[in-house]
Amino acid sequence: MVKYFLGVVTGILLIFVLCLIAVVVAMMSGGSSATVADKSVLQLDLTGPVRENVASEFDLSFLRSGPPPTLLGLRSTLQHAAKDSHISALALNCGGLAVGWGKAQELRWQIEKFKESGKPVMAFMQVAGTVDYFVCSAADEVYMEPEGILDMKGLRAEVAFYKDTFEKIGVDVEMERIGKYKSAAEPYTQTGMSEAYREVTNSILDEVLAQLSDAIGPSRNMTPEQFQAALDDGPFQPDSAEKAGLIDGLLYRDQFEDKLAEKIGVEEIKTVSRPAYAKSNQAAFELGGKKQIAIVYGVGAILRGRSQNDPLLGIETLGADSLVEAMEQARDNDDVQAIILRIDSPGGDAIASDQMWRALELASAKKPVVVSMSDVAASGGYYMAMAKACRYSPTRVATPARSASSSASSTCRVCTKRSD
Q1: In the chain, is it the N or the C terminus that has fewer CB atoms within a 10 Å radius of its CB?
Q2: What is the pairing mode between strands 336-345 and 292-299?
C-alpha cells in the first residue's frame, strides 16, 4: 500500500516537472521571430518589483509573464525604443510598483531621457500610490480611470518596538552598538525612538519630500511649494486629483488608447509589450566586443559563503565568496576595461563585508571600479563601498532642468572621475 502511494506521488511529481519544463521551453522559444510594426506604441507596465539582476534562472513569475524585468533591462529597452523608428510613443501603465526610491529615481530619469527623442509619453493609472505617481508624472500627460484613486498622502516612517513583548515572554535581548546614530538595535532594546533615531528618520523624510517636490512640481507646471500644498489634501479621488492639477483628465482605457492614437496620427494603436519588444530586439540588446564594462551585483543581506536565492520565498542573500569570485573574474579579464559594483544591500556580517571590501581594493588597483548604490547601501553594504573606488548615488531627483545628471557623462558626486 505504501509502495503504491509513493508510486502515485512520484508519478504526479514527474508529470508536473515535465509540464513545467515544456511550459518554460515554449515561453523561451515562442515568438522569437516577432517583428515590431510601424507606428507601434511601446507599453511599459510599471507594476510589481523591478530587480537589479535575475539571481535565479527559475522564478515563479517567469511562468506568468516571462523573465522578470531588471532595472538595466528597462533602461536598455527605453534607450533602444527612443531610437527605433518603429516606435512612435511610450505608454506607461502605472500602479503597484514595488521599488525603493533609488530605483524609482532611475526609472524616472530614463523616462525623461526617452522624452528627449520627441516621442510622446502618456501615463494611465487606475490605483496608484506615491512611488507610482513620482515615476509616471514624468510623462507628458497623465490620465486616470473615472473610478480610480490616487493614494498619495505624503510620507511616513513606521517603526515597531519589541522590548515590552520580549519582557512578557521572558526574553532578554543583549545588543552592542557603536556610535550615536547606530539605531538598528533600538527596536529590540527600547520602547520608543531615541532622539538620534528620530533625528535621522525625520531628516530622511524631509529630504525625500524635497526631492519629490523638486521633480514632480515642474512636471505638473507647479512650484515645489504648490505641489506640497496639493499633497496635503491627499489621498485623491479622481475629480479632486484633476482639480489639483495632478492629472490631465479622466479616461477609461479605451478612451486613453483613442487619445494616444490621435496623438501619433493613427486610427488604432498597435501596442508592443516590453517582453515582446525585448525579444524582437534580442540581438540589439546582447553585449559583445573586446572592450567591455563588467557589472557585478551586490544584492541582499550579507553573509559568509556563497550567495543564495530562494525563488519561492523571494529571499536573496549576498555571499562574500560569490562576490569576491565575481570581482576577481572581472579584474583578471583583459576584455573588461572597468567594473561597476551595483549595491542594494542592508548590510550583514562584518567579516564578509570586510572580505568584499578587500576584493574591491584589489580590483581598483588594476582597473577603474565604480560603486553605484541602489535603494539601500547600509552598514556592510556601505562599508565595502569605501574601497578605493568612485562611489555614486543620486543625492537629488532629476528634474527636466537637471536631467543631465543622469547622462552617460555625469560627474560622480563623491570623487572627480567620470562615471557611466
Answers
A1: N
A2: parallel
Cα 315 from Cα 353, distance rounded (Å): 19
Contact between 186 and 161 under an 8 Å Cβ cutoff? The reply is yes
Q: Which helix (H) or strand (E) holds 293?
A: strand 292-299
Give the dihedral sign, CA 180/186/190/194.
positive
**Encoded amino acid at 30, one letter:** G
| Residues 376-390 pLDDT 10s | 999 999 999 888 766
Question: What is the number of residues in the chain?
Answer: 420
pLDDT tens across 353-370, in order? 999 999 999 999 999 999
**Cβ proximity of 273 and 43 under 8 Å:** yes
Q: Which residue, among 206, 167, 218, 162, has the nearest Cα to 186 in the 3D structure?
A: 162
Of the candidates 398, 369, 394, the residue with the CA atom closest to the CA atom of residue 384: 369
Distance CA 288, CA 281 (A): 15
In contact, 21 and 253? CB cutoff 8 Å: no
3-state secondary structure of 367: coil
Query: For residue 381, which of 303, 306, 326 has the smallest C-alpha distance?
Result: 303
Helix axes 350-364, 320-332, angle to 10 degrees: 0
- For residues 121 and 263, what is the distance between their CA atoms, to the nearest angstrom? 10
CA–CA gap between residue 186 and residue 173 (Å, rounded) = 11
pTM above 0.85, yes or no: no
From residue 4, alpha-carbon distances to 1, 14, 139, 303 in Å are 5, 15, 61, 44
306: left (phi over 0), alpha (psi -120 to 50) or beta: beta
